[in-house]
TrEMBL record:
<dbReference type="Pfam" id="PF00629">
    <property type="entry name" value="MAM"/>
</dbReference>
<keyword id="KW-0677">Repeat</keyword>
<keyword id="KW-0964">Secreted</keyword>
<dbReference type="GO" id="GO:0016020">
    <property type="term" value="C:membrane"/>
</dbReference>
<protein>
    <recommendedName>
        <fullName>MAM domain-containing protein</fullName>
    </recommendedName>
</protein>
<feature type="domain" description="MAM">
    <location>
        <begin position="1"/>
        <end position="31"/>
    </location>
</feature>
<keyword id="KW-1015">Disulfide bond</keyword>
<dbReference type="InterPro" id="IPR013320">
    <property type="entry name" value="ConA-like_dom_sf"/>
</dbReference>
<dbReference type="GO" id="GO:0005576">
    <property type="term" value="C:extracellular region"/>
</dbReference>
<dbReference type="InterPro" id="IPR051560">
    <property type="entry name" value="MAM_domain-containing"/>
</dbReference>
<feature type="domain" description="MAM">
    <location>
        <begin position="229"/>
        <end position="280"/>
    </location>
</feature>
<feature type="domain" description="MAM">
    <location>
        <begin position="64"/>
        <end position="227"/>
    </location>
</feature>
<dbReference type="InterPro" id="IPR000998">
    <property type="entry name" value="MAM_dom"/>
</dbReference>
Length: 280
């Protein structure tokens, strides 16, 4: 896919892009291509993948992977925070937030997942931590694959930290605000420097009760992550480039620029990005 920006007749013509993602479900596309079927006609949608894009045979540390069907495996709760993640199946107790079912078994309704309950007595910015077992490094790279669901008007944040060799935790991945009513795949590239490391998933409670955040199907791979199907152009995610593998077209006249806040020209361009809605 190539996004081509065409300059207009003067300088008040800045064009911006953000939050590019791909979906295999035509039901989620609000804009159809010009040759789409006429209104009233239907065709079968392609099957929606409910599994990771990485072959199971490439995943290492099998004892540390967890789909939460039989408990929380070797994972533990962070005792230094405000509350704990909850293992659950089906929809959460609050309307307008949370998934309808887990990611592993989908619409069967029989599967389990982890979530943070944002209802009372939780307060804004309360945190819950889900901590991996200690994982032995077996190469220069490690990839954490997981599925998350963040839907609701009061969603806070999902932070993922790495503790390298038991040292101070470092923020490696972050999602803020509602991400839509669907399970999405997260990929976190790590380059541990010590012989062992841990991963911590931190759920941050938002402004009110419609802010449930869910996790499922966490696994580890002992090599580099595959390309992501989503790009927010932020620069938090581990060692991955902020361009997520997108490249400039060398055959055109000029390049797209990565920016924050407003563009330099008056009365054109956005005042802030789409991902966070801030100037940062």
């Amino acid at each position: 896919v190539v996004f081509e920006g065409v300059r207009g007749n003067s300088y008040n013509g800045d064009i911006a892009l953000d939050d590019i993602s791909f979906t295999v479900s035509s039901a989620n596309c609000r804009i159809q291509p010009p040759d789409a079927l006429p209104a009233g006609m239907t065709t079968a949608a392609p099957p929606v993948s409910t599994t990771s894009s990485v072959s199971p045979t490439t995943i290492g540390n099998q004892g540390n992977d967890c789909n939460f069907e039989s408990g929380i495996c070797k994972w533990t709760f962070d005792s230094q925070v405000h509350f704990n993640w909850t293992r659950h199946k089906g929809s959460t107790g609050s309307g307008g937030t949370g998934p309808k079912y887990d990611h592993t078994l989908g619409s069967t309704g029989k599967g389990w997942y982890m979530f943070i309950e944002a209802s009372y007595p939780r307060k804004p910015n309360d945190t819950a931590g889900l901590v991996s077992p200690t994982i032995q490094k077996s190469g220069p790279y490690a990839c954490v694959l997981f599925w998350y669901h963040m839907f609701g008007p009061h969603i806070g944040a999902l932070n993922v930290y790495m503790k390298d060799g038991g040292q101070t935790k470092t923020l490696m991945y972050q999602k803020v605000g509602s991400q839509g009513d669907e399970w999405k795949e997260g990929l976190l590239q790590l380059s541990p420097t010590k012989s062992s490391y841990q991963v911590i998933f931190e759920g941050v409670r938002g402004t009110s009760y419609q802010g449930d955040i869910s996790l499922d199907d966490i696994s580890f791979q002992n090599n580099q992550c595959p390309p992501s199907s989503e790009c927010t152009f932020e620069n938090v995610v581990g060692s991955q480039s902020s361009s997520c593998g997108w490249t400039q077209d060398g055959s055109d006249n000029f390049d797209w620029s990565r920016a924050t806040g407003a563009t330099a020209s008056y009365q054109t361009g956005p005042p802030f990005d789409h991902t966070y809605g801030t100037k940062q």
